[in-house]
């Protein structure tokens, strides 16, 4: 083997080890959830104990509330653990991840966290993509921060399994998800330690408090890490995202954000052919609900998502839900602020509100893991899509111009771009990370850039909405989202994209 090949092999191995480490960290964040939540309750209890007796007497219900919170945490943990058990890691989790911190730090910014896809169906698109496919059961059985079949009685989702290879060799910064303020954290490869030999961090308990058996090897406690609390916050954000996408309580947000998009797609594609359905891409698909709804409308729909936090959860809901309202979670327990009552804070939410496999999806529905820029820059993607739908997505860009350029390139001539969302640039105001690329344009500039890449505005409005907001909270942050339909002029690619 030549020294160049040798070096390439070494680089690939290191990248894979980093990917494994990154995925372990995300899995550990999920597993750290119960312990971190318990730590919060211990803090509430410490504060309660410090109260004068007279004040304690006034608040004598609080110890019971703390116990109830513990029970809610155990229910959330049970859901999380079942979700993790169903996850099939796209990487060999036993791969040696004994990389030095120097190597990790040096390379963390050169790679991407998410490689691959889940098993809803199959990615017919770019060569780099790996996917998740949900197939019609009757045919073939198949945060922003806190700001993701059919007819037969018991449809089954076929999980087409693939070995997932890293998608993003030499990709940009490693992003591991959005936090509750819509910010995306850059992976810090340090800051978590192995907790070898400690008992399972979490939820090997089932809902009755029994130890759960049949956990996969890669969930072995010896492979878990203590992660920084900021990682566990991402898990809490995912729980809120579940409400947005997969609970009846999220219906109002979905009606505000997804419904106008779906109505627009229906208007723009009135005569959808069942034999050759139009193809629609949803970059930054989150937990997959919008992509699923688009599929149910009669489109070949593909969600693209690069956060493993999101992909683990969307795969579980899309591929493993047996019935509607199968799970009960307590999404609002983690904040004592702005509650009208304890009952509001402790209220259960049933998920999913629908059975995804019975939603009447169109064949070809898939979730494609990876960075939008990396995956859809592939030459195979040029002119591949009839529609691109971005919902709360374009402001996740390091360079929004690049996103627009790619959207234009992958659309067919005459194809449409429907966008819905604010411009809360995720990489803006990243203190202490001065080298973080972030191009932050006004709405006017975004539209001007779109026009340069051959887009003509057909419709435009502003829609007030929230994002993963507790509908009963005394605080409701509101976005005034830009909602537009732009059409790619014929021959835009040759005029502008050379
Ligand atoms: C604010 S969330 C919106 C999710 C969903 N569209 C919704 O409306 O609920 C943005 C999503 O885009 C994903 N994302 C951010 N940058 C991405 C990229 N470069 N490629 C693919 N997905 C990305 C994030 O992980 C997150 O799930």
From TrEMBL:
Enzyme Commission no: 2.1.1.22
Origin superkingdom: Eukaryota
Ranges annotated as spanning the membrane: none
Lineage: Eukaryota, Viridiplantae, Streptophyta, Embryophyta, Tracheophyta
Name of protein: carnosine N-methyltransferase
GO molecular function list: carnosine N-methyltransferase activity
Enzyme category, top tier: transferase
A Pfam family of this chain: CARME
Keywords from the named record: Methyltransferase, S-adenosyl-L-methionine, Transferase
PANTHER family per the UniProt record, alphabetical: CARNOSINE N-METHYLTRANSFERASE
InterPro entries cross-referenced by the UniProt entry: CARME, SAM-dependent_MTases_sf
């Amino acid at each position: 083997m030549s020294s160049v090949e040798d070096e390439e092999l070494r680089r690939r191995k290191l990248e894979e080890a980093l990917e494994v480490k990154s995925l372990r960290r995300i899995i550990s964040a999920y597993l750290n959830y119960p312990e971190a939540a318990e730590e919060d309750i211990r803090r509430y209890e410490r504060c309660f104990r410090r109260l004068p007796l007279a004040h304690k007497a006034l608040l004598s219900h609080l110890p019971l509330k703390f116990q109830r919170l513990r029970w809610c945490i155990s229910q959330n943990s049970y859901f999380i653990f079942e979700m993790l058990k169903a996850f099939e890691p796209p990487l060999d989790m036993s791969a040696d991840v004994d990389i030095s911190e120097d190597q990790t730090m040096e390379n963390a910014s050169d790679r991407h966290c998410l490689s691959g896809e889940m098993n809803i169906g199959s990615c017919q698109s770019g060569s780099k993509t790996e996917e998740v496919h949900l197939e019609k059961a009757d045919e073939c059985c198949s945060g922003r921060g806190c700001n993701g079949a059919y007819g037969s009685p018991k449809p089954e989702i076929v999980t087409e399994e693939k070995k997932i290879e890293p998608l993003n060799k030499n990709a940009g910064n490693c992003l591991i998800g959005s936090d509750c303020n819509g910010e995306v954290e850059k992976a810090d490869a340090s800051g978590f330690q192995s907790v070898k030999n400690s008992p399972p961090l979490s939820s090997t308990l089932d809902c009755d408090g029994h130890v759960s058996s049949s956990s996969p090897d890669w969930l072995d406690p010896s492979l878990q890490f203590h992660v920084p609390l900021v990682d566990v916050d991402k898990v809490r954000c995912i729980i809120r995202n579940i409400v947005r996408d997969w609970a009846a309580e999220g219906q109002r947000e979905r009606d505000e954000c997804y419904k106008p998009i779906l109505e627009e797609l229906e208007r723009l594609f009135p005569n959808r052919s069942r034999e050759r359905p139009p193809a629609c891409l949803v970059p930054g698909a989150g937990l997959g609900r919008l992509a699923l709804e688009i599929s149910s409308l009669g489109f070949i729909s593909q969600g693209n998502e690069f956060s493993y936090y999101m992909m683990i959860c969307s795969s579980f809901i899309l591929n493993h839900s047996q019935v509607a309202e199968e799970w009960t979670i307590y999404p609002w327990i983690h904040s004592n602020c702005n509650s009208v009552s304890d009952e509001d804070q402790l209220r259960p939410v049933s998920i999913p509100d629908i059975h995804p496999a019975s939603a009447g999806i169109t064949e070809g529905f898939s979730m494609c893991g990876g960075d939008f820029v990396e995956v859809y820059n592939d030459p195979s993607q040029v002119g591949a899509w009839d529609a691109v739908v971005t919902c709360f997505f374009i402001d996740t860009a390091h360079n929004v111009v690049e996103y627009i350029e790619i959207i234009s390139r992958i659309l067919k001539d005459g194809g449409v771009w429907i966008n819905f969302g604010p411009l809360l640039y995720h990489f803006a105001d990243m203190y202490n990370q001065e080298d973080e690329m972030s191009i932050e344009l006004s709405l006017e500039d975004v539209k001007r850039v779109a026009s340069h890449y051959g887009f003509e505005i057909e419709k435009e409005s502003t829609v007030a909405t929230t994002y993963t907001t507790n509908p009963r909270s005394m605080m409701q942050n509101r976005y005034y989202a830009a909602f537009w339909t732009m059409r790619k002029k014929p021959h835009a690619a040759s005029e502008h994209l050379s």
